[in-house]
Amino acid sequence: MKTLTRYLRIYWQIVKANTSLVLVYRFNILTYVLATASWAIFAVIAVLLYSGQVPTLAGWTKDELLTLTGVFSVVTGFSYTFFLVNFMDLPERINSGELDVLLTKPLDSQFLSTLFHFSHANISRFLIGISILVFTFRSYSIGWLTLAGFILLLLSGVTILYSIWLLLVTLNFYTRRLDNIIGFLLELFDQTSRTPSDAFRVASSWAFNFLLPLFMVVSFPTKALWGKLSAEMTVATMVTAVVLFVLSRKFWQYSLRHYSSAGG
Amino acid sequence: MKKYWQVYLSAIQDAFADRARLAVYVLQDFIAPLVSILLWIGVYRFSGKTASGWELDRLISYYLMVAFLSLTLNHYLEFSIGFRDIKLGGLVKYLVKPVSYLGYVFAGSNGWKTVRFLFALLPYSLLIMFFKQYFNVSASLPSVASAALFAAIAYLMIFFYKFLLGISSFWVVENYGLVNFFWMIQTLLSGLLIPIDFFPNWIKTVTWFLPFRFFYYLPVKLIIERQGLGDYLPDLGVAMVWLILLGWISASLYRKGLKNFSDTRQ
Lengths: 264, 266
Prior knowledge:
The complex is a heterodimer. By secondary structure, chain A is an all-alpha fold. Chain A has twelve helices and no strands. The mean pLDDT of chain A is 88. In chain B, helix 7 packs antiparallel against helix 11. The longest helix of chain B is centred in the middle third of the chain and has 30 residues. Chain B is globular, with a radius of gyration of 20 Å. The two termini of chain B are 32 Å apart. The mean pLDDT of chain B is 88. The chains are: A mainly alpha, B mainly alpha. The interface between A and B is large, with 49 and 40 residues.
């Protein structure tokens, strides 16, 4: 408990330091907010365009698709705010030897390496996601149990995404010039998560199974909110989150031994 | 001309030296069309139809051709110009050489694109093979020739458009936000997400006044509908006007931007 409080206090200092930095370049934050907000709006426009053409998209109604978009914005807003910039920066840190600066601190290396940058601009995306969900559910009622299950699945989804990012970025300890692997995953996640998972299940079971961990991040929490996710899949999502997190942490700790700094 | 040829060859060498990263970039290019194809196959298997009266094979053929055009025509300069050359000051090395920066960037981009295209041929062939039962295009020679003409214009238009996004860093320093905003607009209005025919009429009207539909949608439509240039002469005129306008704005804004530029490495 004492350690957790200490890390929370340190994280608050990190957020404050990042905020001071952002305030120096105020115009930049405006353009970042414009970009993140426009991608969230883009996702809504895409849903409206699709649902204007077909009554259901692979069995998903317009409201369900809007929920998917809302959950997608919440997950991306949250993950991009806390982790993404760090994962984007890590390959360069590893390749240039800058990681030394973080490793020499008396703190957990994974904590510092993946939470050092806080991206304020993506908070707008998170808020837009919440607004979409509130708007979509304005005429529906959700039970507390469903909501609790949804939040738990959402946290599992974010953990899965974080763990996959960490697993991939850790590969940079072994091979140089793989810094765009995060961009690749980002594109894959972005494209597949805005699309109903059932379309893939029907189109190609191979693609569905391959992308299953990514569907657990956005599609499954959305289905849970509409009461359409089976108990087995709910448990599978949570177990996957725990297994991937443990696996990625072990892989990170093991791979650190291969880090020889820039001069090594 | 010879010096730009050297720049082109040197960019090809750079691209080959960076082949691991390039391979990842190429695979990344295929994600969006692949997801769209799987989505529409899923939709069709669920409801027995797609949208706007498009048959499934027509829609899949559309995405396969858009994927080909996207990897052939798209330039990736906006961040290298904005970050490496303007923000970090790399532009200085071009200013002291007897070369045009615009020409240098164009030759370099062509070099990277050549290698990127070669790398993409294998995965693209696999994509066609995998979805060959849906790839049903009986293009006529006039329609292919017209599409090639529009594609050549689009190639230059995209270059100037990306160049403009890159040099926006003269004024905004960090062009990430602006570039992302325009990516979104481009994805939506160029036919990359869905064919423009699926849009409501008012958006279709808006697209008529913008350059984006020339990027992918129009060349593919010419082939799918087996139409020749005769039906699209007004569009050719509009495309030429956009090309000249984008080229002129690029050159003028670059000259203006240079006055704002200061080498940050000093």
